[in-house]
Amino acid sequence: MSTTAPPPSIVTADDGRIELAADVLLDDTRFANPDLTPVPIAKRRWNTYNFLALWVGMSHNIATWTLASGLVALGMDWKQSVLTIAIANVVVLVPVILNGHAGTRYGIPFPVFARASFGLRGANLPALIRALVACVWFGIQTWIGGGAIYALGGKAFGSWWANASAIGGEPWTQWLSFAVFWVIQVVVIVRGMDTLRRFENWAAPLVLVGAVGLLIWVGVKAGGLGPLLHQPSKLGWGSDFWKVFFPALMGMIGFWSTLSLNIPDFTRFGGSQRAQARGQALGLPTTMTIFSLLAVLVTSGSQAIFGTPIWDPVELLTKLDNLAGTLVGLFIVLIATLSVNIAANVVSPAYDFSNLIPKHVNFRRGALITGVIGVVIFPWKLYSNPDVYIFTWLDTVGGLLGTVAGILIADYWILRRTRLALPELYEPGGRYWYAGGWNWRAVTAFVVGGLLAIGGSYSSVSDGVKQGPFPADGLIPFLKPLADYGWAVGLGSALVLYVALMKLVPPERQEI
Question: Which CATH superfamily is domain 2-379 in?
Answer without folding.
Answer: Hydantoin permease (1.10.4160.10)
